């Protein structure tokens, strides 16, 4: 058998070279047999890194990173394999450092294979082992823990466990700064920026993104890795209705050999292109389906990939005037982990299909339990405003609309104001008058909104109105239609106005189009 296929023999040769102070030979053996050793004898790699002198490490930055934390090497080093693999240690771990290393690298392997529940279990096991350790053991590994918390946070994040992920990333950032691990601090800040951007907490997202950017400038090596802060910054540009700029920024994000965020980045690019009008909804949905097929194992369990793709697919369907399909996707998403993404936009989709009771229920749920998720709270408040206006409660409608707009301006979430039809937004904006004098809102009121289709109504048309609608669909001037119905033109106009109001449209052609789509005529 070849030397490459015998990890035990390779490890023996490495230990012999180290014993004889032949460090160059040990390094060459380790680098040549990296994929085998990372799978079968992690200890041999650590032995090489631990035996090198400070001068030798200065000449070999990659090995310095190995020494600091082997789990990090699997991501950062140019020697990394093309996919993460699970280490199998020959002996039970003998120290806290070895235990954390084993649990962390196995968690990486599980996460990148789409086994998010297993990755979470391993991350929690690592945290429990750390909590159980004595002070001396913890002190001995403190300088390595920034990378550990970063990896554990990623496992929580991709399992859509936001609170645990944010806690782990904040700890990774603190330890990275404390022990001058700028790469870990940079990446943790980027992950925090992304987590807050997804929830719509604009101020927090921008602040963490700026920290990540500054750290990346002072730690050049991190610019070649994950750079989730770039993805978060692109989302923030799109939130401010600058999708073209978001796409340009996203194009600058480095590609990694193994990048967990590549699928959420793809989903976000679909959202940006939809808003920018760069592709048809059919093409964008095809791209999402193709990505799910190619990377099917990464969608097998509920997690950030599944949540991102379903959520954005629902927005695309809503833009394509298929709110029924959007409701179906968002209803399924609510059953998955991470369902907090669904309710606000689902309320808007329910409103679009005329399911007012369901829209009201979803909106109330969001207001009650999503106080810290502005991305869902803004649509929910808009839905409440529309329903209140429809019920004749102008005061309540104005309060809900003003709260939605204030929240959108505060967090830079103008894009979240597009989930009700333009006509509804204009009516509410005019009702608000001087109460909303922000120039961003005034600009928004003058432009056609992107996602919301004309609103359907749950009110049925009367037999006479259906008869009028059928005659309108037959074409001809109003005088001709009136003559066929044996009505005066003025009476016909009264019927037309009632029909347009019930269908949520503002003219004859849209009324006919909606009626045909809904099978009314």
UniProtKB/TrEMBL annotation:
CDD domains: LuxR_C_like. Keywords: DNA-binding, Transcription, Transcription regulation. The keyword DNA-binding applies. Residues 454-519 form the HTH luxR-type domain. PROSITE patterns: HTH_LUXR_2. It holds the Pfam family GerE. This is HTH luxR-type domain-containing protein. The lineage of its organism: Bacteria, Bacillati, Actinomycetota, Actinomycetes, Micrococcales.
């Amino acid at each position: 058998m070849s030397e490459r296929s015998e990890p035990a023999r390779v490890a023996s040769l490495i230990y012999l070279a180290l014993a004889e102070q032949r460090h160059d030979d040990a390094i060459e053996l380790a680098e040549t047999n990296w994929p085998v050793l990372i799978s079968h004898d992690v200890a041999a790699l650590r032995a090489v890194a631990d035996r090198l002198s400070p001068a030798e490490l200065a000449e070999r930055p990659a090995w310095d990173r190995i020494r600091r934390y082997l789990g990090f090497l699997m991501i950062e080093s140019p020697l990394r394999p093309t996919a993460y693999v699970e280490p199998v240690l020959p002996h039970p771990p003998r120290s806290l450092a070895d235990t954390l290393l084993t649990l962390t690298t196995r968690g990486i392997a599980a996460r990148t294979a789409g086994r998010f529940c297993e990755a979470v279990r391993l991350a929690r096991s690592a945290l429990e082992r750390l909590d159980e350790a004595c002070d001396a053991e913890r002190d001995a590994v403190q300088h390595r823990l920034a990378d550990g918390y970063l990896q554990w946070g990623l496992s929580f994040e991709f399992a859509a466990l936001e609170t645990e992920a944010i806690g782990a990333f904040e700890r990774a950032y603190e330890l990275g700064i404390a022990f001058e691990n700028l790469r870990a601090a940079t990446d943790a800040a980027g992950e925090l920026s992304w987590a807050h951007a997804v929830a719509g907490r604009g101020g927090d997202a921008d602040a963490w993104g700026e920290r990540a950017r500054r750290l990346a400038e002072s730690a050049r090596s991190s610019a070649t890795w994950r750079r989730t802060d770039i993805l978060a910054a692109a989302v923030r540009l799109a939130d401010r209705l600058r999708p073209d700029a978001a796409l340009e920024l996203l194009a600058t994000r480095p590609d990694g050999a193994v990048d967990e965020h590549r699928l959420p980045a793809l989903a976000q690019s679909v959202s940006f292109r939809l808003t920018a009008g760069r592709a048809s909804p059919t093409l964008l949905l095809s791209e999402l389906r193709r990505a799910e097929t190619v990377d099917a194992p990464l969608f097998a369990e509920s997690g950030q990939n599944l949540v991102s793709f379903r959520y954005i697919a629902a927005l695309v369907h809503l833009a394509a005037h298929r709110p029924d399909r959007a409701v179906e996707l968002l209803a399924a998403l609510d059953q998955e982990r991470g369902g907090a993404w669904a309710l606000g936009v689902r309320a808007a989709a329910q409103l679009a299909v005329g399911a007012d009771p369901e829209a009201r229920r979803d909106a109330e749920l969001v207001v009650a339990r999503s106080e810290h998720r502005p991305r869902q709270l803004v649509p929910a408040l808009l839905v409440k405003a529309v329903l209140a206006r429809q019920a004749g409660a102008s005061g309540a409608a104005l309060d809900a609309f003003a709260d939605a707009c204030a929240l959108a301006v505060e967090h830079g979430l103008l894009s979240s104001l597009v989930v009700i039809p333009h006509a509804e937004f204009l009516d509410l904006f005019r009702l608000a008058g001087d109460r909303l004098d922000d120039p961003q809102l005034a600009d928004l009121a003058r432009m056609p909104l992107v996602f919301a289709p004309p609103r359907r109504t749950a009110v049925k048309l009367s037999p006479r109105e259906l008869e009028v609608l059928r005659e309108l669909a037959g074409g001809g001037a109003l005088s001709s239609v009136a003559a066929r119905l044996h009505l005066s033109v003025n009476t016909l106009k009264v019927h037309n106005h009632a029909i347009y109001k019930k269908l949520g449209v503002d003219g004859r052609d849209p009324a006919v189009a909606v009626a045909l789509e809904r099978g009314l005529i």
